Amino acid sequence: MRKFQGFAHRTTHFGAWAVVSAAVLFSLPGHAEAGGRSAPAAPAAAPACTGDSVITKKLPGGTTWRMCWRNSPTAGLVLTHVTYQPRHESKPIEVLGSARLAQINVPYDDGSDEYNDVTDERFGEGALPIKAADCPGGTVRSFRVADVGTVKGLCVTTQPRGFAYHGDSGDVGEGRARIDSAQGQDLVVYTLHAVGWYHYVTQWNFSDDGTITAKEGATGNLSGGDFNASDGTGWPVGQNGAAKALSHQHSVLWRLDFKPGGSWKSKVEQYDTTTNGTNAEMGHGQLKTSRKQMTKEFAGDNANDRWWRVVASASRNADGHPRSWEIVHNRSDKYTRHAYTRHDVYVSQYKACEQYASDNRRINPDCLGNVAKYVNGENLTRPVVWVNVGFHHIARDEDQTPMPVHWQGFQIVPRDATDMSPLTPDRLHRPEFNGHN
Ligand SMILES: [Cu+2]
């Protein structure tokens, strides 16, 4: 396994645009408004974070990720100023202003209980230490939790992710064709938080191809007081079925404050592909993809062949295409009783007090209460994306003990952030291999 590179050389990753003596992550005001590679050098900016609050990692494929992190007493792991700099980009490209959990809502099937783990159970205060062995190849960092003390609880590491690509350059017309292949790597950051008997893994993977994966893992133990589902709302675990573990729902909601290409101003689009008759000559089916500009706040639902993207307002790649990031949301058990867990995504116009997907008034009493209410028809100029991924947990014998981690999550995938693949070998990163006439 590849040895972790560590942070000893992090300042060198800042390259030409800043020379610094300590680890700092600069915010990038203004740099992207000019767009593209020809933008002037960024003006001197105040550091967004310094020292141990900076995560910066150059992956073997040449992609550098930078971000700031902290542990919130409610939301747990909060990432801010997330930037992506592939090998051929002279400057970091900002992607997310902030990204974190917005709620974990857990109602039980018999109606006996319901939890809001982030706001009511104060998820972030349940931070657990991470053993060195549980952060293989990486470094565990410390943070303070009020009334608890210092918790050594953030793992920063790298993990292999399998094939990055495999291709024959003869297909694109290279004179002396070669087979190119590479194995991909992720920068991986995660925390552990206990809520009752559950332990949650809050994990973010930042891939060398620009993909961001958010996933929440639930492990720990089935709730000790909930083995009495005699009314049919549970599943027998243990001998003879006397103990029936109560079924329940984990709706995990994330809040993504996009800052694509360095500007808060962005657009959201929905794409749908549908059947469109038959090719008269060949007799094969035809498809048609349509784009819908989402100019107002909305709650969206997955459908066959549907996807959304957040489009930078003032940042283009070297091909002149607007940079954008696609939300890849594949699966969800939606808890339909609540308006705030009934949909797969919610996109709201930014408001400072709209912080949690539900139970928001516990923390922000003068604000609206949940994400379904935030989405009330305003114009979208600074979108905040709330992603809901539900998991209806019907326990099984294998859930004892400890319970194997069950994961739920989504991805943010760059679409036209760079002119070609960020991992294209240098000898193929040339105009003649970028598009065909
Ligand atoms: Cu569960």
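Helices lie at 360-363, 371-374.
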